[in-house]
Amino acid sequence: MISSVCVSTYRGRKSGNKPPSRSCLKEEMARGEDSDKITINVGGTRHETYKSTLRTLPGTRLAWLVESDSHGSCESDAEPPSGTEFFFDRHPGIFAYVLNYYRTGKLHCPADACGPLFEEELAFWGIDETDVEP
Fold it and tell me: What burial letters (b/e) apply to 7-38, b meaning 16+ CB within 10 Å?
């Protein structure tokens, strides 16, 4: 999880778009604690990301998953043990685009997916289909 400081420094360079410094990257890697990591298995494909990434789209299924994880469930106040993997029997290829939307804020429809299937997956994850960029 690279901070906006590292990214903006990278994008703002005029001398050949050099990558962020090693010290900046090491600092960011140290901040990404294991306790913030989450594994989501979609259709047999494992995806790892940070809970903070999933909080970027409040009101969606994955944001709810992370919020219920941090607040405890109705049945128990205990958080799931670390290393818990959440499984969803959904289309793994389309989920990669969904997860990328959480990471980048940009949602694109894959060229090889049929429109109705893509819309169905977005509805399942709680994402408005009008968020798709042209």
Answer: eeebeeeeeeeeebeeebeeebeeeeeeeebb
Among the listed ranges 8-12, 30-34, 48-52, 127-131, which one has the minimum average pLDDT value? 8-12
First to last CA, the chain: 27
Q: What is the pLDDT of residue 108?
A: 94
Q: Compute the distance between CA of residue 38 and CA of residue 102 in angstroms, rounded to an integer.
A: 14
Q: Cα(47)–Cα(125) distance, rounded to whole angstroms?
A: 15
Could you tell me the pTM of the whole model? 0.69
Q: Which residues pair with 38 in a beta bridge?
A: 49
List helix spans (H) across the chain: 4-12, 22-31, 51-54, 61-71, 92-104, 115-125
Q: Spell out the domain ranges in the chain.
A: 1-31, 34-131
What are the structure tokens assigned to 14, written together? 């005029």
Q: What is the CATH number that goes with domain 34-131?
A: 3.30.710.10
Write down the residue that tokens 């969803």 correspond to.
88
Q: Name the token pair of 130.
A: 């009008």
| Residue 13 region by backbone torsions, left for phi larger than 0, else alpha for psi between -120 and 50, else beta | beta
